[in-house]
Amino acid sequence: MLHVLVHMAQASEPVTSETLAGLIKTNPVVIRRIMGGLRNKGYVRSDKGHGGGWTIAQDLSTVTLLDVYLALGSPDLFALGNRTEAPRCFVEQAVNAALNDTFQEAEALLLNRLGTITLAALSEDFHSRARSADRRCRAESHAAHALPTRTC
């Protein structure tokens, strides 16, 4: 979803669910469902009808990755988790006890860090990378005398 939001921030007009779905290779219905949580928090807005679509509703510097995470319903942060196939097994209990503290510490650290990164920081990083790539492509083009086999 961060990918989608940074693309939206670059757009000069509303972006349709279909276009956003194409960016992350999913169904537009999935985009609309996910964007609903962001809209409910006031981070995005949608306009219906011809020329409608999704737009960013807040200054990117005021929205953190933690805000987005919470607006999306706080999905699981880790694919790993405790096993519950044999809850009476003492080995499973010992492993789960050890992992619980580790997962809780890691989650707290990650959530804290997400609270320090704004969508504006992601957007600026994108722009910086795009400028660097553009300079590199211009230099390569000049060195190769603008041969049509350019990869940039």
TrEMBL record:
Q: Name any one Pfam family assigned in the record.
A: Rrf2
One Gene Ontology CC term in the entry: cytosol
State the Gene Ontology terms under molecular function. DNA-binding transcription factor activity
Q: Which residues form a coiled coil?
A: none
- PROSITE patterns, per database record: HTH_RRF2_2 (PS51197)
Q: Which PANTHER family match?
A: HTH-TYPE TRANSCRIPTIONAL REGULATOR YWGB-RELATED, WINGED HELIX-TURN-HELIX TRANSCRIPTIONAL REGULATOR, RRF2 FAMILY
Q: What is this protein called?
A: Rrf2 family transcriptional regulator
Q: Which organism is it from?
A: Gluconobacter wancherniae NBRC 103581
